[in-house]
Amino acid sequence: MLDIILEDLEFISESIDIIEERFVKINIPHDFVLNPDGVTLLDSIIMRLQSIGEAVKNINKRDPELLKKYQEVNWTDVIRFRDFVSHNYDEIDHVIVYNLCKEKLHSFKTTIEKIQRENFN
User: Fold this and answer.
1) Beta carbons within 8 Å of 92's beta carbon, 6+ residues apart
2) How many Cβ atoms from other residues are within 10 Å of residue 67's Cβ?
3) I need a labelling partner for 59 at 20 to 30 A (CA). Which of 7, 34, 88, 120 fits?
4) Band of the pLDDT at 21, cuts 50, 70, 90?
5) Which long-range contacts (CB under 8 A, 24 or more apart) does 73-79 make?
6) CA 83, CA 15: separation in Å to the nearest integer?
7) Cα 83 from chain centre
8) What are the b/e assignments for 2-26, b being 16+ CB within 10 Å?
9) Mind listing the pLDDT tens digit for each residue in 74-106?
10) Burial of 68 (0-12, 13-18, 19+ CB in 10 A)
């Protein structure tokens, strides 16, 4: 069970790295929608965010107490975002995705690294 959770955490960490690498090309929210390359970046980032949410959902199912120890992240919101993307993809607001990447992603990554360090070393 712990091996599977560790794999999910590693996947989340790798996905965040990929998002950060892609997000470097985005300076303002509208960069996502002004040209085909921006739309491609938006789509790829959204899919990574959705996959992160799925991994968080799986971790929470396997060990609900683990994530409760790290209240600096609203895990329910991460899962809800995944659910929203899965069921309402056409309604996703590029400004929200921009703000998530700009304002939340770094601290989320820090928390994932903390979980890995404190529980799997």
Assistant:
1) 46, 84, 85
2) 18
3) 88
4) very high
5) 73/107, 73/108, 73/111, 78/52, 78/53, 78/108, 79/53
6) 18
7) 12
8) eeebeebbeebbebbeebeebbeeb
9) 999 999 999 999 888 788 999 999 999 999 999
10) exposed
- Nearest in space to 118 (alpha carbons), one of 50, 72, 52: 72
Q: How far is CA 27 from the centre of its chain?
A: 19
Encoded tokens for 49: 């965010």
End-to-end CA distance of the chain: 15
DSSP element (H, E) containing 22: helix 2-23
CB 75 within 8 A of CB 8: no
Which of 65, 92, 68 lies closest to 80 in space, CA to CA?
A: 92
pLDDT in tens, 38-87: 999 999 999 999 999 999 999 999 999 999 999 999 999 999 999 999 88
**14, 51 Cβ separation under 8 angstroms:** no
